[in-house]
Amino acid sequence: MALAETATRVRDRRTRREAFFRTLRWHEAKWAYLFLLPNLLLFLAFTIYPVFASFFYSLNRWNLHNPMQFIGLGNYTTLLNDPIFRKVLGNTFYYTAGIIPFQTALGLLIALGLNQKLRFTTFYRSVYFVPVVTSSIAVSMVWQWLYQPEWGVFNSLLKQIGIQGPNWLFSTSWAMPSVILLSIWKNVGYSVVLYLAALQGVPESLFESAMIDGANAWHRFWRITLPMISPTTFFIIVLSVIGSFQSFDQIYVLTQGGPARATSVIAYYLYENGFKFFNMGYAAAIAYVLFGLLLFATLLQWFYRRRWVFGEE
Amino acid sequence: MQPSAPAKPTAAMRTHLTRQTPKGYVFWKVARAGVLHVALIVGAVIMLIPFIWMVSTSLKSLDQVFTFPPSWIPNPIIWENYPQALTTVPFGQWFVNTSRIAILVTLGQLFTCSLAGFTFARMRFPGRDVLFLVYIATLMIPAHVTIIPIFVTMNTFGLVDTPWSLIIPGLTSAWGTFLFRQYYLSLPSELEDAAKMDGCSFFRIYLQISLPLAKPILATLGIFTFLGAWNDFLGPLIFLQSKDTKTLTVGLLQFQAEFQGMGNWPVMMAGVVISTLPVLIAFIIGQKYFVRGIALTGIKG
Are the CB atoms for A249 and A179 separated by under 8 Å? Predict the structure, then answer.
């Protein structure tokens, strides 16, 4: 009898305790949902919903004013056969390929110079970083003036040493390199700062023991510094690819995609279709192709990451 | 190269080196520093040339601009380009518009992201991990994918061409939420646990314990959100159409359109100087925080 009584009492106590904790958990969850609410509502309305809506638009022909007309994958097949889009894709790869080597190698070179125990390095670092914080529209306008074929600085300086400069932004072969040059100038300070932080994180003891083993500066760079900062290199490459695939501002100001589509990149073509011609469905399809390419490029880089990034299993 | 190696040799090595060739060692040290300084200064000048040329052009008259060889220092200095730039287009209005959007977006993000980051890091509730995974998954999505439906939404609600079309979607970001959550997780939770034991409400824990601890992230996210909103171009280009609602970036384009046909580069450069000055001043004052923030989080400015 006593045993059964104890058993019920224990059970009672347990259920009561469980109930208590359940209320406590529910109390916490209630507050958690409340705290998330402002963030979550905005996130649903301006990220999640648009992602699905965009995909739905891409399956339709739509110019904002007339009702949507469902055409399935029509926009995507049009894209496949669109010669301009093929050119635009090529330009985007050209632009990206032109930027990555400088963003990494030049950034690292400058960071190495700044990583010495010298005076004024903070000042130099700030100078390299100024273009990063300045509006891309403003600096593009300045560069447009630098590139001006007759009176711009570049061609004037070239003329002083007896060279007839190119037409820069007005030449189909020079326009893209000009845009690339501006983008490198604008963004290199960003990799400098990242590399500098990485270099300062390499333990000094590694260099000391390498020196005792007789490694010279060249070897220490290739065998210690470079592997130790490879995660940063990876990070910079991934971010540069993402940034370059979406670059728009400089091209809008400098060339408007011209001359003869020489500088039309995906983001610019998307803007033209969506907000100049109001082909919303077609623009949404381009956006999804851009998204797919970015996803593919990033996954590919993650896949190859362990081949060259130090400390990856 | 990694020439920093000799920069910090062990004490034994230093005495060894200095004893062996005291003069030679000092000479090489000074020479190396000299070469590095020259290289860094040349690089810095190259980086600054566009800014120097911008200021120099903005202080020239039209016929001083079209001369060969180009002169770097305007003679005489022409200040009139600045009043002309300021009176042709409403820079003041654009400045106010830009500030309003940037300030509200920054405050909004700091609030929503710090609160949600705290919730994800410190509170337990059903669906937490799945929901956070969804947030992370959206980090990769380019703005171009979402901007078309956002435009359609804003159009439906009649908010296109008002600052609200840029402010409301900017009030939160998955990236900011992610940053705050990671930061809170990197901190020990003893303080919060103790407060919880003492019966402190969750909101008070957030407000009085967690938020003050997150000052570095508040500063970083604040700076870069503000900068991003201030320099944003695609958004204002699509959403803001009339002259009065424009921000500085799109306004600058309109300004350019009015002067470029005449080739009036001095006035155009004066306009560019006016529009970039606030950010440049802010950067010079707070450069430490900008640089530290980048190193801390790797945000693209």
Answer: no
State the number of CA atoms in the 13 A half-sphere of B289 facing the CB. Answer: 16
Q: Which of residues 171-230 of A touch B (CB under 8 A)?
A: 185, 189-190, 193-194, 196-197, 204, 207-208, 211, 217-218, 220-221, 224-225
Q: What average pLDDT does range B270-282 have in this prediction?
A: 90
Phi and psi angles of residue A288, each rounded to the nearest 5 degrees, phi first: -70, -35
User: From CA A263, how far away is CA A95, in angstroms rounded?
Assistant: 9
For residues A188 and A121, state if they share a domain.
Answer: yes
More confident residue, A117 or B241: B241
Instruction: Spell out which residues of chain B touch residue A106, defining contact as CB-CB under 8 Å.
Output: none
Give the pLDDT of residue B1: 39
Return the CATH number of B84-297, one of 6.10.140.1670, 1.10.3720.10, 3.30.230.10, 1.10.1040.10.
1.10.3720.10
**What integer is the mean pLDDT of B19-48?**
80
- Give phi and psi for A98, each to the nearest 5: -70, -25
Give me the pLDDT at residue A289, please: 93
Look at residue A308 and give its three-state secondary structure. helix
Distances in whole angstroms, Cα of residue B11 to Cα of each of B8, B14, B15, B17, B263: 9, 5, 6, 10, 64
pLDDT per residue over B157-205, tens digit each? 999 999 999 999 999 999 999 999 998 988 888 888 888 888 888 888 8
Nearest beta carbon to residue A194 from set B171, B206, B294: B294
Tokens of B208: 């009085």
How distant, in Å, are the alpha carbons of A129, A130, B31, B197, B285 from that of B282?
Answer: 13, 11, 36, 43, 5
Is residue B62 within 8 angstroms of chain A, CB to CB? no
User: Which range marks the domain in which residue A221 is found?
Assistant: 74-308
pTM over 0.90: no
Cα-based distances in Å from B202 to A18, A23, B207: 22, 15, 9
For the record, the structure tokens of B65 come out as: 């601009």
* Same structural domain, A157 and A210: yes
Is-contact A67 B205, C-beta < 8 A?
A: no
Pairing of strands A60-61, A69-70: antiparallel
Angle (CA) A47 A48 A54, round 5°: 85
Question: Are A289 and A160 within one domain?
Answer: yes
- Tokens standing for residue B163: 């600052």
Are the C-beta atoms of A41 and B171 separated by less than 8 Å? no
Residue that the structure tokens 């004013």 belong to? A65
